[in-house]
Amino acid sequence: MHTHPQFRLLALLYKAMANERRLFIVQQLMRKELTNRDLLILLRIHSGAVSKHLHLLLRAGIIEGRRKGREVFFRIRPSVRAAVIFTFRELLMVRQDS
Predict the structure, then answer these.
(1) pLDDT in tens, the chain (98 residues)
(2) Using an 8 Å Cβ cutoff, are 34 and 23 in contact?
(3) What is the CA angle 93-95-97, rounded to 5?
(4) Per-residue exposure over 35-45, b if at least 16 CB sit within 10 Å of its own CB, e if not
(5) How many CB atoms lie within 10 A of CB 89?
(6) How far apart are CA 62 and CA 43, in angstroms?
(7) Whole-angstrom Cα distance, residue 83 to residue 69?
(8) Bridge-partner residues for 34, per DSSP?
(9) Distance (Å) of CA 55 to CA 26, 62, 64, 94
(10) pTM of the model
(11) Cβ–Cβ < 8 Å for 30, 63
(12) Angle between helices 20-31 and 36-43 (to 10 degrees)
């Protein structure tokens, strides 16, 4: 079966957002930039799991990182920030209406 590249991108986005911890990471990054260490403290899971979640979000193009010294600061990509806000609001409104 041949799939359209846009469908592959959508599947990657859905996979990235289909996890409570990744949704929590996105929510926290909407507020401010955070390092891997910050996320370790917030999530209370081992570093390998945090790295896996960040990798999926990076591959999906939802977040980006910038290195400062030995640390990497993660944030929501500016080009997708409005879409993330809209999606969160829409999903929460649908949930409240149910």
Answers:
(1) 566 777 777 777 778 888 899 989 998 999 999 999 999 999 999 999 999 999 999 998 899 999 999 999 999 998 887 777 777 777 666 555 55
(2) no
(3) 70
(4) eeebbbeeeee
(5) 10
(6) 19
(7) 31
(8) 74
(9) 13, 10, 10, 29
(10) 0.80
(11) no
(12) 120
Q: How many CA atoms lie within 13 A of 47 on its CB side?
A: 4
Q: Read off the tokens for 90.
A: 């829409």
- Please give the sequence-ordered ranges of beta strands (E in DSSP) within the chain, or none if there are none: 34-35, 63-68, 71-76
User: In angstroms, rounded to a whole number, what is the distance separating the alpha carbons of residues 94 and 89?
Assistant: 9
* pLDDT at residue 95, rounded to an integer: 57
